[in-house]
Structure formats: C-alpha cells, structure tokens
Specification:
GMP Synthetase, Chain A, domain 3, 490 residues, 21 helices, five-stranded parallel beta sheet, 4 domains, alpha/beta, Helicase, Ruva Protein, domain 3, Rossmann fold, three-stranded mixed beta sheet
Length: 490
C-alpha cells in the first residue's frame, strides 16, 4: 500500500482493515494518495500534506480507525497528525467522483474559515514549511518567538504562563491577560505563543490580531451582512490572541460581540490570550461583564527590565546587527536606557549606524558620540516640580497626598524618593526642597535622602502597595528608572 512508510506486518494489517471499513475507493483517495502511516509503540502517526487532509480524516474516519485498531491491536490507539508536505508529490491525484463534491464543498468552507489564520508553518525539524492561500493574518506578522524572549525577574511569571498556554491551551490559564507599559515585550510574548502553538499543534486553528483589526473585521462583516461567517470563523478557533485589547473600550457593539466570542471559545475549552497597556480594571469604558471575564483567569504584569536583563538584550541586539561591543559599552548604555526594550533597540540602531557611517569599530568613545544626548541628559538639571510629578505617576499617588502630613508607608516612601531625586537632579538645597514639599524642615529632607542612599548602597529592595497590588523593586534599579523617566518627561 502506498500509504505505508516502512514494512511492518501490524501496520500493513491495520491499513488493510481500515481500507475494508472506509471502502477501497475512499481509502485510495484519502489514505494512499494523501497520507503516510507510521505505527509507533504508543501511537499511529498519520503524515499529511496539509491541515485540510487531517481535518477531513479526523472528522470522517476517526471512529473507523479506532475500530480497526481494536480489531488488529486489541485496544484503542492514539492518533497523531503531522503536516509533512515533502513526503508528497506537488500535484496530488484528483479525488474520486463520489468524494469530489464533498471535497470542494468542505474545502471552500475550510478555506473561508482560515482567512484570519496563519499562512505558513515556521521551519522546524518536526514540521517543515506548509504553503497555504494568503490569509489576512500570516506568518509574516510572527516576527518573535518564545526562544528569543529574554527572561528575568520582571517578566518570569508572564513568560511561564505564555509557555504553558502554548503547550496546553485551555487547560489552566484561560483567559491569559498580560499587561504592562509600552515596549516591555507583550507583543513578543503573544507572537511567541502563536509560533509555539503552531509548532506543537499544527492542525489546530488559531488567530493573532490586534483589537483594532478585530473591530474592523466585525464592522465590515456587519456592513456586508456576513456576521454569521465572521462568528463562525472567530468562535471555532482553538486559540484566539488579541493584542492591544484596550482598543475595544467604548465600542459597545464590538465589546458585546467580543464577549460572546470569548464565551463561546472558553465554553469549548479553548484558549484566549490578550494584552494591554493597562490592567483590565483600569481601562476606561470597558464593560463590567468583560472586566469580570478578563480577571477570571490569569492576569499578569510585565515590569521594566532590570540592569542584567537590559545588558542581555543589548548583547542579543548587537549580535543581530553583527556588532562587536565591549561589555563596558553595553553596561554604559544599559545604565542610561532603563524604560523599555524599544529604547534599547533605538540605542543599538544608532550605534550601528554611527559605526557603519564612520567606518569605525564600536568602542566607548564611539558610543559616547553616537548617544551623546543620553550623557547630556544625565547632567542637565530637571525642573523640581516635574520630578515630583514623575514620582507621583510612577507610584500611583496623588500629588496632594505626597504633600500632605500622612506618614503611612504608601505615601512616605514616594515622598522620600522625590526628595532624593530632587536633591540629585536639580539645583535646590535641602531647605529649598523642604519648602517645595509643603514647607517641611530641612532635617526631614536630609534624613529621607540618607535613607534612600543607604537602600541603594546596601542593595536593598523597596516595597510598596499600589492599586494593582504589592510591588517590590531593587532600590538602585528603581531610582535609576525614575531618573530616566524624569528626564524623558522634563
């Protein structure tokens, strides 16, 4: 039989019994011409040229395959489909007349359902590339993978959750909601989930899109009277990944449609993953029903990368640019760019361009010339009121509370940090800082500055409570990040 990869009496007998049960003509079309069978100790692997063949065999012949396994092997048999187009001719044989109509009808519906799905399978040792019709969401959008994600204390939990849902979708963390400021790697994680999901589950349906794209598709379906097709495509997915889901806020009809889509996917035990710049409870104009659904699963925050993570990211970026950069230069950049990954990418891009245009190797002198504005920012005085406001924004406290007489830790820590930064980054004296912060005694300012300085030199961690829960961060990292935040918003 043409579908048998290697000589195996049991496999041959199993194929013969399957042929008897499905009929010789159908077996020739759907197995001999479209599959390669391999009987392993714990499963029957069915290699197919594309997802359509696996979908058809799985939906039409699964019961008959199990009956054949019971008859030949004496028990049920686990079946796994593997998409391996290199095993097949480029032009498969035309289906027999009795299945041609069903094939055309099913393929039409299947292709329509795939219009928002991935277009090609990324190259791996297990699953070579699969060519499919050009969809609206294709592999070209999946620029990132979980393997290239730099993991550290600020994103470890988010990474672990992402890896879990990619391997075991719908089993535990559904929905998975990842939030954090811009440029911290949310999109990287979401695309990484899709790539790994595709590698591990090549025959399952998935979609990756932004909140804006979901909205546009929904509106277009409404205008063209194709809402049933839209719902069919969305609600039968095994994995739905929505980036920038906050875009849906305030759009009542779209939010309602997304809620129904969400409920339908979850009811089938499938996976939903979302990302946003903010925690779902802090997104304005989100309906209570959506918020409750979002927080019912795993909500995890990504914080800015620490110094070690920034150094590792810079090393990887330099490798991508084919740059040789000494560690002291890497550290110099990492100490001055602390907010997000995009700023690190911008810094490496500038250094690479400066090196190429000047035809010089990357050393500390070239880095200073290429990124001289970073050095100037670190010595330029900042307006004291801007520093105080930046501290309030970071800790999530009101300006009036910072200036008040309250002494609880949630206020006293940001107040001490503000005093320290104003002293370091402006030209004000201790008495002047006291006057700025509601006429406090200069000895209070001195004590606060010394307390923060001891935390930094002693390698202590600062802990505080915010509206989104308790946060803890290394004192030196926190002050360095706040300093750049103040200079960026001066």
């Amino acid at each position: 039989m043409g579908c048998i990869i290697k000589e195996d009496p049991q496999l041959t007998r199993l194929a013969e019994v399957i042929a008897e049960k499905v009929g010789q003509q159908r077996f020739h079309v759907w197995f001999n011409s479209s599959t390669r069978l391999d009987l392993k100790p714990d499963m029957l692997e069915i290699c197919v040229p594309n997802d359509f063949i696996s979908e058809w065999i799985g939906s039409h012949f699964s019961r008959l395959i199990q009956e054949a396994a019971q008859e030949v092997l004496g028990g049920p048999l686990h079946v796994r489909f593997s998409v391996m187009p290199q095993l097949f001719d480029a032009r498969p044989e035309e289906p027999a007349a009795e299945t041609r109509d069903a094939l055309a009808k099913t393929h039409s519906g299947f292709a329509h359902a795939k219009t928002i799905l991935n277009g090609t399978l990324p190259p791996t040792a297990t699953h070579p590339p699969v060519q499919r019709p050009a969809p609206s969401v294709g592999r070209a959008r999946l620029r990132h993978s979980l393997d290239t994600f730099v993991v550290g204390a600020s994103n470890q939990l988010a990474y672990n959750a992402a890896a879990h849902v990619a391997q075991y979708p719908g089993s535990q963390y559904t929905p998975l909601f990842i939030h954090g400021s811009c440029g911290l790697g949310k999109t990287h994680l979401l695309q990484g989930i899709c790539r790994r999901f595709l590698e591990l589950h090549p025959t399952r349906r998935w979609a990756y899109m932004t909140g804006e794209e979901f909205t546009n598709e929904f509106v277009q379906a409404m205008r063209m009277n194709k809402i049933d097709q839209f719902r069919h495509r969305m609600r039968e997915l095994d994995l739905l990944v929505i980036d920038d889901v906050h875009f849906l806020a305030g759009k009542r009809a779209t939010m309602e449609e997304f809620l129904h889509t969400f409920n339908a996917i979850e009811a089938m035990g499938k996976q939903v993953v979302m990302a946003s710049d903010s925690h779902p409870k802090t997104i304005e104009d989100f309906g209570e029903s959506l918020i409750n659904r979002f927080v019912s699963g795993m909500v995890v925050r990504i914080d800015p990368p620490n110094f070690q993570m920034r150094c590792e990211m810079l090393r990887r970026m330099a490798l991508e640019h084919q740059l040789t950069i000494a560690d002291e230069v890497i550290c110099w950049i990492a100490r001055r760019v602390t907010q997000n990954v995009r700023e690190l990418e911008g810094a490496i891009t500038r250094v690479a361009a400066y090196s190429k245009l000047s035809n010089r190797p990357v050393d500390e002198q070239l880095a200073h010339e290429a990124l001289g504005d970073l050095e100037r920012q670190h010595v330029q005085p900042i307006r004291p009121d801007a520093i105080v406001q930046s501290v309030c924004d970071y800790f999530g406290v009101a300006h009036r509370d910072l200036l008040s007489a309250r002494r609880d830790h949630g206020i006293s820590l940001p107040r001490s940090v503000a005093m320290y930064l104003v002293r370091k980054m402006s030209t004000l004296s201790y008495p002047e800082i006291g006057q700025l912060l509601n006429k406090r005694n200069h000895s209070t300012v001195i004590s606060a500055c010394r307390r923060i300085d001891r935390a930094i030199t002693g390698g202590e961690a600062l802990e505080w409570s915010s509206a989104l829960g308790t946060r803890k961060e290394d004192a030196a990292e926190l002050l360095q990040r706040l300093e750049e935040h103040c200079r960026a918003g001066k």
